[in-house]
Amino acid sequence: MKEMKERTKTAVLAAVGDELLSGLRNEGNCAFLARLLHDEGWTVERVEIVPDDPARVADVLSRWVGKVDLLVMSGGLGPTHDDRTRCALAEFLGCGLAVDNALYDRVAARYRGTEREALVERSRSVQGLVPEAAQGVYNPAGSALGVRFERSGTRVWSFPGVPFEFEAMTRQELTPLLTRGRDASYAWDSAAVAGVPESVLVERVPDIIADSRLRISVLPSFGLVEFVVRGERALVGASMKTLRARLPDDVLPEGCTTLPQAILKTGLEKGLTLSCAESCTGGMAGAALTDVPGSSGVFMGSAVVYSNEAKEKLLGVERSVLEKRGAVSGECAEAMARGALALYGTSIAVAVTGIAGPGGGAPDSENPEKSVGTVWFAVASRTGGGIENERIECRSFVRRLGEERALVRERAVRTALTAAWRQMKEM
């Protein structure tokens, strides 16, 4: 459970850039900071995206300075013609711009030789500019200085829009501010629920949803719903206990917000290992598992068998199965899972084989079993006591996961990992 800060702290976040409004780039900096603010109990009043127009940037400042505790801006501090945020800041403050050479020297000192001349010094006259009524902010990850000032009770920071620079400067500048003065009587907590639709989840905990003393967020994604509760510490704790009691088979273990994390924790606790056999997902399930530090304690490997020949040679799928039933079938999925179980010597193996599209599938009316988005899954596991009594159990199932290739693959990974986690829980 996370402690919350005083609930009166408010913030507005603004991202600057024509590329964000045109869809050429996705905005992620405000989302990153909003999560940090949420974790510390702040209220984000607004997230805005504005073009590279000094008048529009200055308008954001005029509307929010004096009304919130914190205003953070992202973008428009680079060396090119469309980086105009510093001009807007100077206009709002009614001052000119000047190069902060002392601070920029600290940035330049990190670079050497031609890199320093080509990337840093040639941009000093622009990226070192700071409004004369503000202070420059050292950039530990890039070459453009940030800006900070305080007006009418609002603290304002402006950072470059490059994501790793924004994150580094946020942690450098804002961490002391965000974590100061926690109110221990308030808290927030969350739980991830697998395989339960949002509507069903809400129906299972109507008393929690209806409690006006709590703030509830229900955040659905394919196959997983995050249930977030904020409020008085004792009430938050009681509500999360109720949620877990009513959905004991579906809530991921405490501290786990993703299926790979849940698989790692459950596998370590039970001494189980996992392998994968992947066709249409091309290794995405294995990649998701290895994103979690320490995954080697449970995950042994993934066999990517995209072609029929690979399924035969690597996993021992019989040619008769491929010829009679096809690669997209329950029989093939089960053979793949058994093959991975033998190849890696794991406790459990999960297999995925299907048609991600856009081609390769037959129209539904002709053969619904082979339409785009059809994916078969299988889970194989070792049961029994000791080698002499050991036997292999295997089950398969099919899902229709849409027609868009990227979504089919992502949903297939989520479905496969859910099946693997549930099997681990049962063993």
Features:
427 residues, alpha/beta, Molybdenum Cofactor Biosythetic Enzyme, Chain A, Alpha-Beta Plaits, Maf protein, 3 domains, 6-stranded mixed beta sheet, 5-stranded mixed beta sheet, 18 helices, 17 strands
Q: How is this fold's topology laid out?
A:
Elements: E1 2-5, E2 10-16, H1 18-22, H2 29-39, E3 43-50, H3 54-64, E4 70-74, H4 85-93, E5 97-99, H5 101-108, H6 113-120, H7 124-127, E6 129-131, E7 135-137, E8 146-151, E9 154-159, H8 163-178, E10 182-194, H9 198-204, H10 206-210, E11 215-221, E12 224-232, H11 233-246, H12 259-270, E13 274-278, H13 284-290, E14 299-304, H14 308-315, H15 319-324, H16 330-344, E15 348-354, E16 374-383, H17 386-389, E17 391-400, H18 405-426
Parallel strand pairs: 2-3, 2-4, 4-9, 13-14, 13-15
Antiparallel strand pairs: 1-10, 5-6, 7-8, 8-9, 10-12, 11-12, 15-16, 16-17
Helix pairs in contact: 2-8, 3-4, 12-18
Large-scale geometry: globular
What is the CATH architecture term of the largest domain?
Answer: 3-Layer(aba) Sandwich
**Poorly predicted spans:** none
In which range does the helix fraction lie?
40-55%
What Rg, in angstroms, do the CA atoms define?
27 Å
CATH class category of the largest domain:
Alpha Beta
Which structural class should the secondary elements be placed in?
alpha/beta
Write down the domain tally. 3
Strand content: 25-35%
- Biggest sheet statistics: 6 strands, mixed
Distance between the termini: 29 Å
